[in-house]
Design a protein that fits this description.
- It is built from one helix and six strands; from the N terminus they run αββββββ.
- It has one domain: Golgi alpha-mannosidase II (Immunoglobulin-like), CATH 2.60.40.
- The chain is mostly beta strands.
- Strands 1, 2, 3, 4, 5 and 6 form a six-stranded antiparallel sheet that branches.
Length: about 100
């Protein structure tokens, strides 16, 4: 838990724009999955959160996600245009 909090603090310091940029909820067919985008003039962040106790698969064909853009994650994997999230898994993609 301490290591995770250190990662969050480091990302917040490195990417301060995340805290004050425009927020947009993105469409998800599954009520258990929350996807949102934070957009600044220079960069954007897409966050995927599985809020359920079961694994979820989410298709995001309009978003070019890559493993290199995945900066913070727990229990999340990429499979082409799909994201597979373990129970309560999440990932932050910096684009």
């Amino acid at each position: 838990m301490l290591q995770f909090m250190r990662e969050l603090v480091h990302l917040r310091r490195e990417q301060a724009w995340v805290g004050y940029s425009d927020f947009e909820a993105m469409c998800s067919d599954d009520a258990a999955v929350m996807v949102h985008r934070v957009q600044s003039d220079a960069a954007s962040l897409i966050s995927v959160h599985n809020l359920s106790a079961s694994p979820q698969r989410l298709e995001l064909p309009d978003v070019a996600l890559s493993k290199t853009a995945l900066r913070l994650q727990r229990g999340l994997t990429l499979d082409g245009d799909a994201v597979e999230a373990a129970p309560y898994g999440f990932g932050w993609f910096f684009l």
